[in-house]
Amino acid sequence: MSTSLDFERCYLAICARDARFDGRFYTAVTSTGIYCRPICPARTPARKNVRFYTHAASAEAAGFRPCRRCRPELSPGSPGWDARADLVGRGLRLIDDGIADEVGVAGLARRLHVTERHLHRLFVAELGTGPLAVARTRRLLLAKQLLTETSLPITDVAFAAGFGSVRQFNAAMKESYGFAPGDLRKKVGPLRAVGGPEGVTLRLAYRPPYDAQALLRFLASRAIPGIESTIFQDNLVTSYQRVIPGGAITLTPASDHIRLTVSTDDTRQLARIVARCRRMLDLDADPDAIAAVLEPTALGPLVMKRPGLRVPGAFDAFELVVRAIVGQQISVAGARTLLGRIAGGDTFPTAAELAEKDLTGLGLTGRRIATLGAVARAVADGQIDLDGGDPAETSAQLLEIPGIGPWTVSYIALRALRDPDAWPGGDLVLRKKMAQLAIEESEIERWRPWRAYAALHLWNA
Question: What residues are labeled active site?
Fold first, then answer.
């Protein structure tokens, strides 16, 4: 059992099947060899037969298999790892992005600027197992979800989940789970997106409450023409769609999850797409922990009114940097127009593509063009790592680029770097809302470490 978990608290949670703990830990049962989510409907095991683990990979490394009833692959991500900016937290996010599958653990360590041995030591200290085992568990759980929820051929499932071959996939499933991939196909038929495009459809779980409408409206108001679109029905957002390299995604809010439909010509990118959608929709946040800090403050009435408010992230971090720079001191509508011109009606340019792109004649000032070129070159050359770098270090690097000020960096940290404590203090709307609500400056410190969520509550007030 992980030393960071309290046995009594965890056991009470599984007795109550408390959904607040879903994704925070996993329950392994020694008498069955199975590990479950806290909400598993199966009979509560005896105390003597229970072990608790902070990560699914830890349970699997100890020899346990995922439960077929509660399906650990559907758990929301751990809010602890989602919010952390240390090496383990950043490493886990890169593994979710499929980096370890592409370049191995050695490449992952290089991306984090540490030795492979040091990274392994940190993972074992935190999770009880190394990054290689974590990457393997991620592949297996994604494959399990694809087998039960989609009609993808087993060969495509193998490569979509990150395995190098079908033979490797079959061997890993039999060794870890005790059954062949084809066995799951006999249990559940494929899901289909209602009214959406044909493609691979998966469920993305979250911790309730979740204000999907507020987040999707935020994205809708900032949708880049030709890249993003939103469908409304009876004044409600029914789906959000965007173009991605090699395909498109559709996100549809359901009663207890978000339905993701992916149309792509390269299913090997599926793991990365799922991870990016989860971050964009802030699905791994813990609303109870956030409310526990914000409700006792002057923001209390706003938090109680919108308990499931989340921070809109970004599907692509570099795209968000460009959004922040273009949106400086102009309206949201004006920024959308300029961003549509930069995109040119196709997929949004990568950093390397934008560094070579001629931006004159699009309505941007010369200073803005110079700033965009400088940041694009820095990201393309690897000088700035928007996905695996330390948020504080990345923010400092962005501040060194002429034309990028504190507000822009704070906005980037809030949405692209996923810093839950980012606070765009110079934002005029935030200042105006605080003045209207008679909220003193001294209150801002009381909102730590969730000031990004405080900003969203004020923006939505």
Answer: 36, 427
